[in-house]
Amino acid sequence: MLSSSEQATSSVLIVGSGVFGLGTAHALATRDEFRHTKITVLERVDFPAPDGSSIDSSRIIRPDYADGAYTSFMAEAHKYWRGDFGADGRYTEAGLCIVTDEGDGAGKGEASDYMLKAMENVKSRLGLKVGRREDRGQVEPLVSAADISRVMATMEGDCGTKGYVNWTSGWADAEAGVRHMRKLVERTERVDFKTSEVRRLEFGDGKIESVELTSGEHLKADLVVLATGAWTPKLVDLRGVCSASGHVLAYLDLSEDEQDRLGRNPTLLCENSGMFIIQPRGRQLKVARHGYGYANPTVIPHPERPDSGETITVSLPRTKMDDENLNIPPEGDRACRAFLKKSIPYLADRPWTHTRICWYTDTPTGNWLIDYHPAYSNLFLATGGSGHGYKFLPVIGDRIADVMLGQDGDALGAELRQKWRWPVQKHKSDHVWTDDWRGGKKGMILDVELGRSSSLSSNGVR
Ligand SMILES: Cc1cc2nc3c(=O)[nH]c(=O)nc-3n(C[C@H](O)[C@H](O)[C@H](O)COP(=O)(O)OP(=O)(O)OC[C@H]3O[C@@H](n4cnc5c(N)ncnc54)[C@H](O)[C@@H]3O)c2cc1C
Protein backbone atom coordinates (compact mmCIF):
# COMPACT_ATOMS: atom_id res chain seq x y z
CA MET A 1 0.00 0.00 0.00
CA LEU A 2 1.16 3.54 -0.73
CA SER A 3 2.53 5.32 2.31
CA SER A 4 2.81 9.11 2.52
CA SER A 5 6.56 9.12 1.85
CA GLU A 6 6.16 6.99 -1.26
CA GLN A 7 3.45 9.25 -2.63
CA ALA A 8 5.86 12.13 -3.01
CA THR A 9 8.14 10.26 -5.40
CA SER A 10 5.95 7.64 -6.96
CA SER A 11 5.05 7.28 -10.57
CA VAL A 12 1.78 5.63 -11.50
CA LEU A 13 1.09 3.87 -14.76
CA ILE A 14 -2.61 3.41 -15.44
CA VAL A 15 -3.35 0.89 -18.18
CA GLY A 16 -6.73 1.44 -19.86
CA SER A 17 -8.76 4.59 -20.46
CA GLY A 18 -12.34 3.52 -19.87
CA VAL A 19 -14.45 4.47 -16.86
CA PHE A 20 -12.08 2.93 -14.29
CA GLY A 21 -8.83 4.17 -15.90
CA LEU A 22 -9.93 7.76 -16.58
CA GLY A 23 -11.72 7.98 -13.25
CA THR A 24 -8.51 6.93 -11.48
CA ALA A 25 -6.40 9.34 -13.54
CA HIS A 26 -8.70 12.24 -12.66
CA ALA A 27 -8.66 11.49 -8.95
CA LEU A 28 -4.87 11.12 -8.79
CA ALA A 29 -4.36 14.28 -10.83
CA THR A 30 -6.55 16.35 -8.53
CA ARG A 31 -5.76 14.96 -5.08
CA ASP A 32 -3.16 16.52 -2.91
CA GLU A 33 -1.65 13.19 -1.89
CA PHE A 34 -0.52 12.66 -5.49
CA ARG A 35 0.69 16.18 -6.27
CA HIS A 36 4.27 15.01 -6.93
CA THR A 37 3.30 11.83 -8.74
CA LYS A 38 4.04 11.30 -12.41
CA ILE A 39 0.84 9.90 -13.91
CA THR A 40 0.71 8.09 -17.25
CA VAL A 41 -2.32 6.53 -18.95
CA LEU A 42 -1.79 3.87 -21.62
CA GLU A 43 -4.54 2.89 -24.04
CA ARG A 44 -4.09 0.14 -26.63
CA VAL A 45 -5.98 1.98 -29.42
CA ASP A 46 -6.69 5.57 -30.32
CA PHE A 47 -9.05 7.04 -27.72
CA PRO A 48 -11.90 6.30 -27.34
CA ALA A 49 -11.52 2.54 -27.79
CA PRO A 50 -14.47 1.61 -30.02
CA ASP A 51 -14.73 -1.84 -28.47
CA GLY A 52 -14.21 -0.72 -24.87
CA SER A 53 -17.13 -1.45 -22.62
CA SER A 54 -17.42 2.25 -21.65
CA ILE A 55 -18.04 3.34 -25.25
CA ASP A 56 -21.56 3.08 -26.64
CA SER A 57 -24.60 5.16 -27.53
CA SER A 58 -26.12 4.94 -24.06
CA ARG A 59 -25.84 3.54 -20.54
CA ILE A 60 -28.51 3.42 -17.82
CA ILE A 61 -27.93 5.76 -14.86
CA ARG A 62 -29.93 4.31 -11.94
CA PRO A 63 -29.80 4.11 -8.18
CA ASP A 64 -32.11 1.09 -8.43
CA TYR A 65 -30.01 -1.59 -6.78
CA ALA A 66 -30.95 -4.49 -4.54
CA ASP A 67 -27.68 -3.79 -2.70
CA GLY A 68 -28.29 -0.47 -0.97
CA ALA A 69 -24.60 0.47 -0.81
CA TYR A 70 -24.67 1.03 -4.58
CA THR A 71 -27.94 3.00 -4.24
CA SER A 72 -26.18 5.35 -1.82
CA PHE A 73 -23.06 5.54 -3.99
CA MET A 74 -25.24 6.41 -6.97
CA ALA A 75 -26.74 9.30 -5.01
CA GLU A 76 -23.21 10.81 -5.01
CA ALA A 77 -22.76 10.24 -8.73
CA HIS A 78 -26.22 11.56 -9.54
CA LYS A 79 -25.29 15.04 -8.27
CA TYR A 80 -22.65 15.21 -11.00
CA TRP A 81 -24.84 13.81 -13.75
CA ARG A 82 -27.47 16.41 -12.86
CA GLY A 83 -24.85 19.15 -12.95
CA ASP A 84 -22.11 20.12 -15.42
CA PHE A 85 -20.93 16.57 -15.89
CA GLY A 86 -24.26 15.62 -17.46
CA ALA A 87 -24.76 18.87 -19.39
CA ASP A 88 -24.94 19.21 -23.19
CA GLY A 89 -27.02 16.06 -23.58
CA ARG A 90 -24.62 13.79 -21.74
CA TYR A 91 -27.38 12.90 -19.25
CA THR A 92 -31.16 12.66 -19.71
CA GLU A 93 -33.45 12.02 -16.75
CA ALA A 94 -36.18 10.10 -18.54
CA GLY A 95 -36.98 7.52 -15.87
CA LEU A 96 -36.47 3.79 -15.65
CA CYS A 97 -39.31 1.30 -15.75
CA ILE A 98 -38.24 -2.01 -14.19
CA VAL A 99 -40.60 -4.89 -14.83
CA THR A 100 -40.97 -8.61 -14.48
CA ASP A 101 -42.86 -10.58 -17.03
CA GLU A 102 -44.77 -13.70 -16.04
CA GLY A 103 -44.64 -14.91 -19.62
CA ASP A 104 -40.87 -14.99 -19.43
CA GLY A 105 -40.54 -17.75 -16.84
CA ALA A 106 -36.86 -18.27 -15.95
CA GLY A 107 -35.62 -16.81 -12.68
CA LYS A 108 -38.94 -15.11 -11.98
CA GLY A 109 -38.69 -15.28 -8.21
CA GLU A 110 -35.14 -13.97 -8.11
CA ALA A 111 -35.94 -11.19 -10.59
CA SER A 112 -38.98 -10.11 -8.68
CA ASP A 113 -36.98 -10.18 -5.44
CA TYR A 114 -34.27 -7.94 -6.93
CA MET A 115 -36.89 -5.52 -8.22
CA LEU A 116 -38.69 -5.24 -4.88
CA LYS A 117 -35.45 -4.70 -2.97
CA ALA A 118 -34.38 -2.05 -5.48
CA MET A 119 -37.68 -0.22 -5.08
CA GLU A 120 -37.41 -0.37 -1.29
CA ASN A 121 -33.85 0.98 -1.44
CA VAL A 122 -34.68 3.99 -3.61
CA LYS A 123 -37.57 4.79 -1.32
CA SER A 124 -35.77 4.33 1.99
CA ARG A 125 -32.22 5.44 1.11
CA LEU A 126 -33.11 8.31 -1.22
CA GLY A 127 -36.43 9.27 0.30
CA LEU A 128 -38.17 9.28 -3.06
CA LYS A 129 -41.81 10.22 -3.01
CA VAL A 130 -44.19 7.42 -3.99
CA GLY A 131 -46.95 8.28 -6.41
CA ARG A 132 -47.85 9.09 -9.97
CA ARG A 133 -45.69 11.52 -11.88
CA GLU A 134 -48.59 13.90 -12.44
CA ASP A 135 -48.95 14.06 -8.63
CA ARG A 136 -45.22 14.87 -8.30
CA GLY A 137 -44.46 11.24 -7.42
CA GLN A 138 -40.89 10.07 -8.10
CA VAL A 139 -41.36 6.34 -7.81
CA GLU A 140 -44.52 4.59 -8.81
CA PRO A 141 -45.36 0.91 -8.25
CA LEU A 142 -46.92 -0.65 -11.36
CA VAL A 143 -49.23 -3.47 -10.36
CA SER A 144 -50.61 -4.65 -13.68
CA ALA A 145 -49.75 -4.97 -17.36
CA ALA A 146 -52.12 -2.07 -18.02
CA ASP A 147 -50.22 0.11 -15.55
CA ILE A 148 -46.96 -0.65 -17.35
CA SER A 149 -48.51 -0.01 -20.76
CA ARG A 150 -49.67 3.39 -19.53
CA VAL A 151 -46.10 4.35 -18.56
CA MET A 152 -44.54 2.85 -21.70
CA ALA A 153 -47.41 4.18 -23.83
CA THR A 154 -45.66 4.96 -27.09
CA MET A 155 -44.14 1.50 -27.32
CA GLU A 156 -47.69 0.21 -27.80
CA GLY A 157 -46.71 -3.34 -26.81
CA ASP A 158 -46.75 -5.84 -24.06
CA CYS A 159 -43.96 -4.66 -21.76
CA GLY A 160 -44.41 -6.70 -18.57
CA THR A 161 -46.83 -7.63 -15.83
CA LYS A 162 -45.50 -5.99 -12.64
CA GLY A 163 -42.91 -3.44 -11.81
CA TYR A 164 -42.23 0.14 -10.90
CA VAL A 165 -40.99 3.28 -12.55
CA ASN A 166 -38.34 5.50 -11.01
CA TRP A 167 -38.64 8.93 -12.65
CA THR A 168 -35.36 10.06 -11.09
CA SER A 169 -33.32 7.52 -13.07
CA GLY A 170 -32.01 8.29 -16.51
CA TRP A 171 -29.43 7.43 -19.13
CA ALA A 172 -26.15 8.83 -20.36
CA ASP A 173 -24.64 9.28 -23.79
CA ALA A 174 -21.86 6.88 -22.88
CA GLU A 175 -19.18 7.96 -25.34
CA ALA A 176 -19.82 11.65 -24.68
CA GLY A 177 -19.47 11.07 -20.92
CA VAL A 178 -16.14 9.32 -21.33
CA ARG A 179 -14.87 12.01 -23.73
CA HIS A 180 -15.88 14.62 -21.16
CA MET A 181 -13.99 12.82 -18.40
CA ARG A 182 -10.91 12.66 -20.63
CA LYS A 183 -11.17 16.44 -21.17
CA LEU A 184 -11.37 17.00 -17.42
CA VAL A 185 -8.25 14.88 -16.97
CA GLU A 186 -6.41 16.73 -19.76
CA ARG A 187 -7.36 20.04 -18.19
CA THR A 188 -5.37 19.17 -15.06
CA GLU A 189 -2.20 19.06 -17.23
CA ARG A 190 -0.92 16.38 -14.89
CA VAL A 191 -1.37 13.26 -17.02
CA ASP A 192 0.63 11.93 -19.92
CA PHE A 193 -1.51 9.91 -22.38
CA LYS A 194 0.09 7.32 -24.67
CA THR A 195 -1.50 5.07 -27.28
CA SER A 196 0.33 1.79 -26.61
CA GLU A 197 -0.71 -1.73 -25.87
CA VAL A 198 0.76 -3.54 -22.91
CA ARG A 199 1.95 -6.95 -24.10
CA ARG A 200 2.75 -8.21 -20.63
CA LEU A 201 3.72 -7.28 -17.14
CA GLU A 202 7.20 -8.37 -16.06
CA PHE A 203 6.74 -10.08 -12.72
CA GLY A 204 9.65 -10.00 -10.29
CA ASP A 205 9.90 -11.19 -6.73
CA GLY A 206 6.63 -9.96 -5.22
CA LYS A 207 6.43 -6.96 -7.53
CA ILE A 208 6.06 -5.76 -11.10
CA GLU A 209 9.51 -4.91 -12.47
CA SER A 210 8.29 -3.24 -15.64
CA VAL A 211 5.61 -3.23 -18.29
CA GLU A 212 6.42 -4.44 -21.80
CA LEU A 213 4.59 -2.75 -24.67
CA THR A 214 3.86 -4.41 -28.02
CA SER A 215 6.36 -1.92 -29.50
CA GLY A 216 9.04 -3.68 -27.44
CA GLU A 217 9.49 -0.65 -25.17
CA HIS A 218 9.69 -1.27 -21.40
CA LEU A 219 8.17 1.18 -18.90
CA LYS A 220 8.82 1.26 -15.18
CA ALA A 221 6.55 2.72 -12.51
CA ASP A 222 6.26 2.57 -8.76
CA LEU A 223 2.64 1.56 -9.09
CA VAL A 224 0.92 -0.17 -12.01
CA VAL A 225 -2.88 0.12 -12.16
CA LEU A 226 -4.68 -2.35 -14.38
CA ALA A 227 -7.92 -0.72 -15.55
CA THR A 228 -8.01 -2.93 -18.61
CA GLY A 229 -11.63 -4.06 -18.29
CA ALA A 230 -12.46 -7.42 -19.85
CA TRP A 231 -8.90 -7.78 -21.19
CA THR A 232 -7.40 -7.89 -17.68
CA PRO A 233 -7.27 -11.74 -17.44
CA LYS A 234 -4.73 -11.65 -20.29
CA LEU A 235 -2.24 -9.70 -18.17
CA VAL A 236 -2.57 -11.37 -14.77
CA ASP A 237 -3.94 -14.74 -13.67
CA LEU A 238 -7.54 -13.98 -12.64
CA ARG A 239 -8.97 -17.47 -12.91
CA GLY A 240 -11.92 -17.71 -10.52
CA VAL A 241 -11.69 -13.95 -9.84
CA CYS A 242 -12.73 -12.12 -13.04
CA SER A 243 -13.82 -13.23 -16.52
CA ALA A 244 -14.84 -11.55 -19.74
CA SER A 245 -18.46 -12.22 -20.72
CA GLY A 246 -19.93 -11.05 -24.04
CA HIS A 247 -23.33 -9.31 -24.18
CA VAL A 248 -25.59 -8.65 -27.15
CA LEU A 249 -26.52 -5.26 -28.54
CA ALA A 250 -28.65 -4.72 -31.66
CA TYR A 251 -29.28 -1.30 -33.19
CA LEU A 252 -31.93 -0.08 -35.61
CA ASP A 253 -32.76 3.20 -37.31
CA LEU A 254 -35.87 5.23 -36.54
CA SER A 255 -37.72 7.95 -38.38
CA GLU A 256 -37.84 11.43 -36.86
CA ASP A 257 -41.43 10.77 -35.81
CA GLU A 258 -40.53 7.44 -34.13
CA GLN A 259 -37.63 9.11 -32.34
CA ASP A 260 -40.03 11.72 -30.96
CA ARG A 261 -42.59 9.15 -29.86
CA LEU A 262 -40.20 6.67 -28.28
CA GLY A 263 -38.19 9.52 -26.77
CA ARG A 264 -41.13 10.12 -24.44
CA ASN A 265 -40.79 6.76 -22.67
CA PRO A 266 -38.55 5.87 -19.79
CA THR A 267 -36.00 3.08 -20.26
CA LEU A 268 -37.59 -0.37 -20.11
CA LEU A 269 -35.71 -3.12 -18.24
CA CYS A 270 -37.21 -6.58 -17.89
CA GLU A 271 -35.69 -8.23 -14.83
CA ASN A 272 -36.34 -11.86 -15.68
CA SER A 273 -35.11 -11.86 -19.28
CA GLY A 274 -32.49 -9.13 -18.71
CA MET A 275 -33.69 -7.44 -21.93
CA PHE A 276 -33.73 -3.67 -22.04
CA ILE A 277 -34.42 -0.74 -24.36
CA ILE A 278 -33.01 2.67 -23.46
CA GLN A 279 -34.60 5.84 -24.88
CA PRO A 280 -33.44 6.20 -28.49
CA ARG A 281 -30.79 8.76 -29.34
CA GLY A 282 -30.09 10.38 -32.70
CA ARG A 283 -32.79 8.27 -34.37
CA GLN A 284 -31.12 5.07 -33.26
CA LEU A 285 -32.74 2.51 -30.96
CA LYS A 286 -30.76 -0.13 -29.12
CA VAL A 287 -32.06 -3.48 -27.87
CA ALA A 288 -29.78 -5.23 -25.38
CA ARG A 289 -29.59 -7.91 -22.70
CA HIS A 290 -28.11 -7.80 -19.20
CA GLY A 291 -27.62 -11.56 -19.04
CA TYR A 292 -24.89 -14.03 -18.08
CA GLY A 293 -23.34 -13.49 -21.49
CA TYR A 294 -21.05 -15.69 -23.56
CA ALA A 295 -17.71 -16.99 -22.40
CA ASN A 296 -14.91 -16.94 -24.96
CA PRO A 297 -12.42 -19.49 -23.60
CA THR A 298 -8.95 -18.73 -24.94
CA VAL A 299 -5.70 -20.57 -24.28
CA ILE A 300 -2.86 -18.20 -23.40
CA PRO A 301 0.63 -18.56 -21.92
CA HIS A 302 0.45 -18.19 -18.15
CA PRO A 303 0.72 -14.39 -17.84
CA GLU A 304 2.78 -14.55 -14.65
CA ARG A 305 5.13 -17.33 -15.91
CA PRO A 306 5.36 -16.73 -19.69
CA ASP A 307 8.65 -18.60 -20.09
CA SER A 308 7.49 -21.74 -18.29
CA GLY A 309 5.60 -23.17 -21.26
CA GLU A 310 2.52 -23.40 -19.01
CA THR A 311 -0.79 -22.33 -20.54
CA ILE A 312 -4.09 -21.35 -18.97
CA THR A 313 -7.60 -21.00 -20.40
CA VAL A 314 -9.39 -17.75 -19.73
CA SER A 315 -12.35 -15.97 -21.29
CA LEU A 316 -11.23 -12.87 -23.22
CA PRO A 317 -13.09 -10.38 -25.42
CA ARG A 318 -13.53 -10.97 -29.13
CA THR A 319 -14.69 -7.82 -30.86
CA LYS A 320 -15.11 -6.29 -34.30
CA MET A 321 -11.51 -5.10 -33.98
CA ASP A 322 -10.47 -8.77 -34.04
CA ASP A 323 -13.00 -9.80 -36.69
CA GLU A 324 -14.92 -7.11 -38.53
CA ASN A 325 -17.61 -9.63 -39.53
CA LEU A 326 -18.37 -10.63 -35.95
CA ASN A 327 -22.07 -10.24 -35.21
CA ILE A 328 -24.18 -11.48 -32.35
CA PRO A 329 -25.01 -15.23 -32.26
CA PRO A 330 -28.43 -16.37 -33.55
CA GLU A 331 -29.82 -16.98 -30.05
CA GLY A 332 -28.95 -13.41 -29.01
CA ASP A 333 -30.37 -12.06 -32.25
CA ARG A 334 -33.62 -13.94 -31.63
CA ALA A 335 -33.83 -12.74 -28.03
CA CYS A 336 -33.42 -9.08 -29.09
CA ARG A 337 -35.92 -9.52 -31.92
CA ALA A 338 -38.51 -11.21 -29.70
CA PHE A 339 -38.25 -8.46 -27.08
CA LEU A 340 -38.56 -5.76 -29.76
CA LYS A 341 -41.58 -7.49 -31.32
CA LYS A 342 -43.33 -7.87 -28.00
CA SER A 343 -42.68 -4.42 -26.60
CA ILE A 344 -42.71 -2.28 -29.78
CA PRO A 345 -44.79 -4.31 -32.27
CA TYR A 346 -44.69 -1.63 -34.96
CA LEU A 347 -40.90 -2.08 -35.22
CA ALA A 348 -41.10 -5.88 -35.26
CA ASP A 349 -39.63 -6.31 -38.73
CA ARG A 350 -37.24 -3.36 -38.81
CA PRO A 351 -33.80 -4.79 -39.68
CA TRP A 352 -30.82 -4.14 -37.42
CA THR A 353 -28.36 -1.65 -38.85
CA HIS A 354 -25.59 -3.37 -36.89
CA THR A 355 -25.02 -5.56 -33.87
CA ARG A 356 -22.22 -5.76 -31.34
CA ILE A 357 -20.93 -8.01 -28.60
CA CYS A 358 -19.87 -5.84 -25.67
CA TRP A 359 -17.74 -7.29 -22.87
CA TYR A 360 -18.38 -7.21 -19.13
CA THR A 361 -15.65 -8.05 -16.63
CA ASP A 362 -17.63 -10.33 -14.37
CA THR A 363 -16.83 -11.18 -10.77
CA PRO A 364 -18.51 -13.94 -8.70
CA THR A 365 -20.64 -11.47 -6.71
CA GLY A 366 -21.03 -8.59 -9.17
CA ASN A 367 -18.94 -6.38 -6.88
CA TRP A 368 -15.99 -4.71 -8.59
CA LEU A 369 -12.36 -5.65 -8.00
CA ILE A 370 -10.58 -2.59 -6.63
CA ASP A 371 -7.59 -3.65 -4.60
CA TYR A 372 -3.88 -4.40 -4.53
CA HIS A 373 -2.89 -7.79 -5.90
CA PRO A 374 -2.11 -9.99 -2.89
CA ALA A 375 1.14 -11.29 -4.41
CA TYR A 376 2.60 -8.18 -6.10
CA SER A 377 2.91 -5.13 -3.88
CA ASN A 378 2.94 -2.50 -6.65
CA LEU A 379 0.11 -3.96 -8.74
CA PHE A 380 -3.34 -2.46 -8.24
CA LEU A 381 -6.51 -3.70 -9.96
CA ALA A 382 -9.38 -1.37 -10.84
CA THR A 383 -11.72 -3.58 -12.79
CA GLY A 384 -14.55 -6.13 -12.45
CA GLY A 385 -17.26 -3.68 -13.62
CA SER A 386 -19.75 -6.59 -13.89
CA GLY A 387 -22.02 -4.69 -16.26
CA HIS A 388 -22.84 -1.81 -13.91
CA GLY A 389 -19.81 0.46 -13.57
CA TYR A 390 -20.56 3.21 -16.08
CA LYS A 391 -23.01 5.26 -14.01
CA PHE A 392 -20.31 5.92 -11.40
CA LEU A 393 -17.94 7.57 -13.90
CA PRO A 394 -17.90 10.98 -12.14
CA VAL A 395 -17.11 9.55 -8.68
CA ILE A 396 -15.45 6.16 -9.01
CA GLY A 397 -11.91 7.57 -9.23
CA ASP A 398 -11.99 9.12 -5.76
CA ARG A 399 -13.09 5.86 -4.21
CA ILE A 400 -10.33 4.04 -6.12
CA ALA A 401 -7.78 6.57 -4.83
CA ASP A 402 -9.09 6.04 -1.27
CA VAL A 403 -8.51 2.29 -1.57
CA MET A 404 -5.01 2.92 -2.96
CA LEU A 405 -4.22 5.04 0.08
CA GLY A 406 -5.81 2.61 2.52
CA GLN A 407 -8.46 5.16 3.42
CA ASP A 408 -12.19 4.54 3.86
CA GLY A 409 -13.26 8.13 3.29
CA ASP A 410 -16.55 7.58 5.13
CA ALA A 411 -18.81 4.76 6.31
CA LEU A 412 -20.02 4.09 2.76
CA GLY A 413 -16.39 3.97 1.59
CA ALA A 414 -15.61 1.38 4.25
CA GLU A 415 -18.57 -0.73 3.15
CA LEU A 416 -17.68 -0.49 -0.54
CA ARG A 417 -14.00 -1.21 0.12
CA GLN A 418 -14.95 -4.53 1.71
CA LYS A 419 -17.07 -5.43 -1.32
CA TRP A 420 -14.27 -4.58 -3.76
CA ARG A 421 -11.50 -6.57 -2.05
CA TRP A 422 -9.47 -9.29 -3.67
CA PRO A 423 -11.67 -12.33 -2.90
CA VAL A 424 -10.80 -14.49 0.06
CA GLN A 425 -12.25 -17.41 -1.86
CA LYS A 426 -12.10 -17.75 -5.64
CA HIS A 427 -15.05 -18.84 -7.77
CA LYS A 428 -15.43 -22.64 -7.95
CA SER A 429 -14.60 -22.77 -11.66
CA ASP A 430 -11.89 -20.91 -13.61
CA HIS A 431 -14.54 -19.10 -15.65
CA VAL A 432 -16.67 -16.83 -13.49
CA TRP A 433 -20.38 -17.32 -14.10
CA THR A 434 -21.51 -14.59 -11.79
CA ASP A 435 -24.08 -15.14 -9.05
CA ASP A 436 -25.10 -11.50 -9.39
CA TRP A 437 -28.66 -11.04 -10.67
CA ARG A 438 -28.90 -11.48 -14.45
CA GLY A 439 -31.58 -12.45 -16.91
CA GLY A 440 -31.47 -15.37 -19.34
CA LYS A 441 -29.33 -18.49 -19.49
CA LYS A 442 -26.01 -19.33 -17.80
CA GLY A 443 -23.20 -21.24 -19.50
CA MET A 444 -23.23 -20.14 -23.14
CA ILE A 445 -19.96 -20.37 -25.08
CA LEU A 446 -19.46 -17.82 -27.86
CA ASP A 447 -18.14 -20.19 -30.55
CA VAL A 448 -20.84 -22.77 -29.85
CA GLU A 449 -23.56 -20.13 -30.14
CA LEU A 450 -22.03 -18.57 -33.26
CA GLY A 451 -21.90 -22.03 -34.83
CA ARG A 452 -25.58 -22.80 -34.31
CA SER A 453 -27.93 -22.57 -37.26
CA SER A 454 -29.16 -19.07 -37.90
CA SER A 455 -32.20 -20.34 -39.85
CA LEU A 456 -34.47 -19.28 -37.03
CA SER A 457 -32.70 -15.98 -36.70
CA SER A 458 -34.57 -12.73 -37.24
CA ASN A 459 -34.10 -10.55 -40.25
CA GLY A 460 -31.19 -8.85 -38.52
CA VAL A 461 -27.70 -8.55 -39.97
CA ARG A 462 -25.58 -11.71 -40.08
C1 LIG B 1 -23.49 -3.99 -23.21
C2 LIG B 1 -23.15 -3.27 -21.94
C3 LIG B 1 -24.13 -2.54 -21.30
C4 LIG B 1 -23.84 -1.89 -20.10
N1 LIG B 1 -24.81 -1.14 -19.52
C5 LIG B 1 -24.51 -0.42 -18.42
C6 LIG B 1 -25.47 0.46 -17.89
O1 LIG B 1 -26.56 0.59 -18.44
N2 LIG B 1 -25.13 1.18 -16.79
C7 LIG B 1 -23.91 1.06 -16.19
O2 LIG B 1 -23.67 1.72 -15.18
N3 LIG B 1 -22.98 0.23 -16.69
C8 LIG B 1 -23.23 -0.50 -17.78
N4 LIG B 1 -22.31 -1.33 -18.33
C9 LIG B 1 -21.05 -1.53 -17.62
C10 LIG B 1 -20.03 -0.44 -17.84
O3 LIG B 1 -20.06 -0.01 -19.18
C11 LIG B 1 -18.67 -0.99 -17.45
O4 LIG B 1 -18.71 -1.47 -16.10
C12 LIG B 1 -17.57 0.05 -17.53
O5 LIG B 1 -17.63 0.76 -18.74
C13 LIG B 1 -16.24 -0.67 -17.42
O6 LIG B 1 -15.19 0.24 -17.62
P1 LIG B 1 -13.69 -0.28 -17.67
O7 LIG B 1 -12.85 0.93 -17.58
O8 LIG B 1 -13.49 -1.36 -16.68
O9 LIG B 1 -13.57 -1.04 -19.05
P2 LIG B 1 -13.34 -0.50 -20.62
O10 LIG B 1 -14.21 0.64 -20.85
O11 LIG B 1 -13.45 -1.68 -21.45
O12 LIG B 1 -11.86 0.03 -20.51
C14 LIG B 1 -10.74 -0.80 -20.56
C15 LIG B 1 -9.75 -0.16 -21.49
O13 LIG B 1 -8.51 -0.84 -21.39
C16 LIG B 1 -7.93 -0.87 -22.68
N5 LIG B 1 -6.96 -1.98 -22.69
C17 LIG B 1 -7.25 -3.29 -22.57
N6 LIG B 1 -6.12 -4.03 -22.61
C18 LIG B 1 -5.10 -3.16 -22.78
C19 LIG B 1 -3.70 -3.31 -22.91
N7 LIG B 1 -3.11 -4.53 -22.88
N8 LIG B 1 -2.93 -2.20 -23.08
C20 LIG B 1 -3.50 -0.96 -23.11
N9 LIG B 1 -4.84 -0.76 -23.00
C21 LIG B 1 -5.62 -1.85 -22.83
C22 LIG B 1 -9.12 -1.11 -23.60
O14 LIG B 1 -8.84 -0.74 -24.94
C23 LIG B 1 -10.20 -0.25 -22.95
O15 LIG B 1 -10.26 1.04 -23.48
C24 LIG B 1 -22.55 -1.99 -19.53
C25 LIG B 1 -21.56 -2.71 -20.19
C26 LIG B 1 -21.84 -3.33 -21.40
C27 LIG B 1 -20.75 -4.10 -22.10
UniProtKB/TrEMBL annotation:
<dbReference type="InterPro" id="IPR006076">
    <property type="entry name" value="FAD-dep_OxRdtase"/>
</dbReference>
<dbReference type="GO" id="GO:0050660">
    <property type="term" value="F:flavin adenine dinucleotide binding"/>
</dbReference>
<dbReference type="Pfam" id="PF01266">
    <property type="entry name" value="DAO"/>
</dbReference>
<dbReference type="GO" id="GO:0004657">
    <property type="term" value="F:proline dehydrogenase activity"/>
</dbReference>
<dbReference type="GO" id="GO:0008115">
    <property type="term" value="F:sarcosine oxidase activity"/>
</dbReference>
<protein>
    <recommendedName>
        <fullName>FAD dependent oxidoreductase domain-containing protein</fullName>
    </recommendedName>
</protein>
<dbReference type="GO" id="GO:0050031">
    <property type="term" value="F:L-pipecolate oxidase activity"/>
</dbReference>
<feature type="domain" description="FAD dependent oxidoreductase">
    <location>
        <begin position="12"/>
        <end position="402"/>
    </location>
</feature>
<keyword id="KW-0285">Flavoprotein</keyword>
<dbReference type="InterPro" id="IPR045170">
    <property type="entry name" value="MTOX"/>
</dbReference>
<dbReference type="InterPro" id="IPR036188">
    <property type="entry name" value="FAD/NAD-bd_sf"/>
</dbReference>
<keyword id="KW-0560">Oxidoreductase</keyword>
<comment type="similarity">
    <text>Belongs to the MSOX/MTOX family.</text>
</comment>
<keyword id="KW-0274">FAD</keyword>
